[in-house]
Amino acid sequence: MEAEIILHVDGSRRALTIDTRTTLLDALRDRLGVYSPKKGCDHGQCGACTVLLNGRRVNSCLVFAVAQDGAEVVTAAGLAEGGNLHPVQQAFLDQDAFQCGYCTPGQVCSAVGMLAEADAAQPSYVTEGFRPEDSPAAADLDDEEIRERMSGNLCRCGAYVNIVAAVRQAAAGGSGA
Amino acid sequence: MTAPLEARAMGSSIERLDGVAKVTGTAPYAWEQPVERPAYLHPVQSTIALGRVTGIDTSAAEALDGVIAVLTRHNALRLEDTSDGELAILQDDAVGFRGQFIGGVIAETPETAREAAALVTVTYDQEAHDARLSADRDDLDAPDQVNAGFPTDTVQGDPDAALAGAAVVIDRTYTTPAEHNNPMEPHTTVAQWTDNGLVLYDSTQGVHQVRRALAPVFGLPIERIHVTSPHVGGGFGSKGLPHSHVILVAMAAQLSGGRPVKLALTRQQLFSVAGYRTPTIQRVRLGADREGRLTAIVHDVVEQTSKIKEFAEQTAVPTRMMYAAENRRTTHRLARLDVPVPSWMRAPGECPGMFGPEVAMDELAEACGVDPIEVRVRNEPHIDPESGRPFANRHLVACLREGARRFGWEQRDHRPRVRLDGDWLAGTGVASSTYPARSQPGSVARIRFADGLFNVSIGAADLGTGTWTVLTQVAADALGVGVGDVRLEIGDTALPKASIAGGSTGLASWGTAIAEAGETFLTKYGTEPEDGDELEAAAPKNPAADEYAMHSFGAQFAEVKVHRFTGEIRVSRMLGVFSAGRIVNPRTARSQFLGGMTMGLGMALHEHSVMDPRFGIIVNHDFAEYHIPANADVLDMDAIWLDEVDEHAGPLGARGIGEIGIVGAAAAIANAAYHATGVRVRDLPLTPDKFL
User: Fold this and answer.
1) Does A162 sit within 8 Å of B624, measured CB to CB?
2) In chain A, which residues have their Cβ closer than 8 Å to the Cβ of B185?
């Protein structure tokens, strides 16, 4: 069964006809040629496919494209529109927070989404008290909070130490170590 | 012999040249290469471990809208060379392990291919399989040699007599489980047959190795296979040599009417067809005097291979050179099973093979009442015990001493289970690390001056290792120019041949070719070349390799906390100190060391591919159940290195660093866990139940 939908991807309006079984990830990659989000497990277990969907970070392999008619999708490529890197991307470069780069677009989108969650007072599993008023703002996240909040994005190259440093840098609005 | 390079660009922490492409997701991996009208392949895998396929009903699959063809042994390309039992798929009705490819569906979309593959019904004549590894089997046998061409067994002196006469004897059995490489990018190949032969976009650690392996299988001259692989999403050995999925997709591309066919393995499929680290059972015997000086070392390893293709891991090989002892024996024995084919995984040999002995050294230190660092220092050999050659720059003791200083080892109370931090038992541990410094001769680099740039090309690979960046630095120094004056090309068989990105040999092997080409280029064309000036040069053999025992060394320190009621274990601090010759790019090198240590942490605490021998299947075949370290698992971790240049390691003075970071990490953590809890766990991974 097929359906016609509109997606707004990295600022472009894209109309497409899709198999209703198609995930948002496959729609982006195989129908629209938007390869920035990666497929690492296709099960929502690795986070390589993370995009910002209507502003929130999601595993795009767990979302059916047909259910997202009219949605706004931002990938790591879109975060750098205009040739200027997003501060999170600049921090990943500054801290060498990646090696093979395959999980990296997902890590970047996840970090952007995560920092917004923190600023929206959303607590994490390690937030003492677990209430919105206990939740640190993005700039106040400690390493434990960053690690916990970034644990949905696996990195087999093992860049976590530098990913935490990059997110810390971006959260603080700093400009490199 | 190529002259040593003067380091100008080398040694600087420049940013990865592929960095912007990586953080935006625009670096094209295999699946993302531009092809016209691709078709999609979904494999059909055997659901038995041993037997014969008696029938494949493809009618329902073929009837599905959008299916282009169903591939089975009845319409599969006949292979010219079927001597590699892993690659020789779809040639007969035999099934050699569960998950082996027996067919596939080619369709217009991935969804249709997957649905149709599920509609293919297969009947089997099933035979009783054998997938149980044990050291007690009576059919264990000795391979002719072990991986990398090492002898299966070695003996020096009379180890049995030395053990019988030793004041202190450690005699323990250690086990490491099967582990899966699990690069984040699944194994991916896009194949197309053209008038010029077979074109592959492949995720591989060596484009030239892929075509050399495939050419005889397909009966094609090597020039008729073109492989492109500019960016690779991790490999860790599992993309070292082509696995059977490359054959399957090439077969499928013969049935697609000339269209390119795309195949990316699912995460689950990776667990049966893309290689893995064999489980090992290691009996380690140490004989020593009361001061901990070794008189005998015996390391007997039992591991598994697949009946359809032999892979014998060189697990006991590091024991042959690590410590001094007059009497020594190492052996490898294989259980030949109806299981998927094991292969390389980061530091095959050294990684599992340094677990048993390095925990045994900790046990020896305790038995003798000697500091674990001191017991290692006391057994430092003056020459390589196996070859009798001098070591080139053996700095193990310096790594241990520097690590001890930085980690705060001197204050350590050696008694186990005496430190409680809330409900957490705390402890520290140390282990040695080593990896051979090899380079492979014969890589060729081409330099062409054009557009005001030195265009340097070599068919090398960047798996996240930093090749794009560090080879550019090497080329800049080889030509005496700035990094910005060099334009590097890698990852394509159209470029000069390069050795594989494996065995931590890439940088030294390719860098030597570039150094040689740079030297020759400057001699021939001077420093003001003209547009179009071009030459190629091959890396000569490193003459020092025949005179010296060449190895990198390291020391791994770990602090762990184990919850006294739940057994939960956390690695609160880790420090690696390495001696690896010149570090060409400190920024990327630190990342690579930390990455190895992180994977070692996974080996220590998490990773275990669980074989259910009743069915011959790895039951935890995804990231939910095969846990690799996540961000929250890695706490305070750092890696440093000795400032050195290895004058015997070729013109770069650098030894490889891709693997040593994982070696010894699990032993350091296990030793720390013992120090914390008083419970000596000899079987990886260190799961909570083992501390209760």
Assistant:
1) no
2) 38, 40, 100, 102
